[in-house]
Each structure stands twice: as structure tokens, then as C-alpha cells.
Design a protein that fits this description.
The protein folds into 2 domains: 91 residues, RimM (Elongation Factor Tu (Ef-tu), domain 3, Beta Barrel), CATH 2.40.30.60; 64 residues, PRC-barrel domain (SH3 type barrels, Roll). Strand 4 and strand 5 form a beta hairpin. By secondary structure, it is mainly beta. The chain has 4 helices and 12 strands. The strands form 2 sheets. It has a 6-stranded antiparallel beta barrel. The termini are far apart.
């Protein structure tokens, strides 16, 4: 299995208690998606190992996860600090409408609603309100941040690899 088959969705921060439970950090707001998972993968000793979930609960913005066949602190502590992955195909299947993986958006061409080429999505940044498209503007090679909201992002076409935005005054290159 190659790295490109997996995406990181959480991280084992520490052990929790003495029975092998893990305290896991994740993006708050994704609790329902985590509850649907049956297992995670962890990259350990140069291979992806599947860790089947026995139980999962939430406590103070962390997930507390008990994995099958991990029953002591010694069993879980070796995974401390490691990312938890799921298969990318599973993540894509479970995306809601107007939801995308970062890897699907980076590199897309950005046009305004009149068809003028503006630049390319360089990366995705996060703030509390929304994701931000970091667009490298073709005219001055500077980065501009476009909130990834329906009012500004009018169309995303993954097949043709472009995004159409409403380039309101002050947004990109003005």
C-alpha cells in the first residue's frame, strides 16, 4: 500500500488510563464521521498497520479510542505521536455535497465569473470561520486568501480542474 492511498484524519496524542486506550486529537466537528469508522491505519515500522476500533467516545475535544488487542499502556504507548489514517477512497466516498479533500483542490486553476484566469490554488489554510483557498495570483505572483464559502466559490469542477470565484472588490489582485 502506498502513501497516496491514505489520508491522515487524527493523531494519537497519548495513552488514556491503564487499559490501552488512546487519547486522540482530531478536527472538532468531525465526531459523526469518526463514529462511522471501523478501523484506522497507523504507519509503524515502515508499514501501515490496521487498528480495529473496539470503542470510541468523546471527552473534552479529544476522542478516547480502545483498539482491539491493545490492552495495556505498553501496547498503546508505542503508537504515541503517530497519525491515524483512513483510506483515501473511503474518505472520498463519505464526503458530503460541496465537501472536498485538500488534495483535490490544490493545483486547480482559478477563474473569475467572467472567465478571466486569476491563478492557481497553492494550498488550503484553515481559520475558525471556514477553509481558505490560498491562490497564487498570475499577475503579481502573490498569495491571496479566498474564503471557501458558497457566496464566493461559485463552482468547483474536479474533472476539468478549475474553480470559479466571485472576485469581489479587494479579494484578488485589486
Amino acid at each position: 500500500m502506498s502513501d497516496s492511498e491514505f489520508i491522515s484524519v487524527a493523531k494519537i496524542l497519548n495513552f488514556h488510563g491503564i487499559k490501552g486506550e488512546a487519547r486522540v486529537g482530531y478536527s472538532v466537528g468531525n465526531e459523526n464521521k469518526l463514529k462511522t469508522l471501523k478501523s484506522f491505519f497507523v504507519f509503524f515500522q515502515n508499514q501501515y498497520l490496521e487498528l480495529k476500533i473496539k470503542s470510541l467516545k468523546f471527552h473534552k475535544n479529544f476522542a478516547i479510542i480502545k483498539f482491539e488487542n491493545i490492552d495495556t499502556i505498553n501496547d498503546i504507548v508505542k503508537f504515541k505521536g503517530l497519525n491515524l489514517y483512513i483510506k483515501k477512497s473511503l474518505a472520498i466516498e463519505n464526503l458530503e455535497e460541496d465537501e472536498y479533500l485538500i488534495s483535490q483542490l490544490t493545483g486547480l486553476k482559478v477563474y473569475d465569473k467572467y472567465g478571466l484566469f486569476l491563478g492557481i490554488v497553492d494550498e488550503i489554510a484553515e481559520n475558525k470561520a471556514s477553509s481558505l483557498l490560498s491562490v497564487r495570483y498570475s499577475e503579481d505572483n502573490k498569495l491571496y486568501f479566498v474564503p471557501f464559502v458558497k457566496q464566493l466559490v461559485l463552482k468547483v469542477d474536479l474533472d476539468e480542474k478549475f474553480i470559479v470565484i466571485d472576485n469581489i472588490e479587494g479579494l484578488i489582485g485589486q
